[in-house]
Amino acid sequence: MPFCPNCGSYVSPGDNTCMCGTYVGGDEEGPDLENMTMEIFSKYDTLKSRYYNLNNQDLDGYSELLDDFKDLRDEIEPNKFPYDFEYPFSTLLMDLNHYISNLEHDINKMNDEY
Ligand SMILES: [Zn+2]
Q: Looking at the whole model, is its pTM more than 0.90?
């Protein structure tokens, strides 16, 4: 597959990744999606429990957690996955966005109170 499905650039045979960052496959096996999925979901569980243990007054804690949620969202960007695999994280992506907007909302509210 010499052309990137994302940006259309030519990808040299043997390269697994296009210069735009998209995984394009190649001769070797793709990423271990099963392990990756487990890892992602365990990170998500950790973030969720941090969310439910947040201290109402702890603005730094909120901002830090917001960043970590965003990092996790970046990690599961659809274009990082091989296009011939089913994208496994659609629902998770929605959940993450939900937490991110809640946190942003809470942070804005806390900022308004000062
Ligand atoms: Zn590309």
A: no
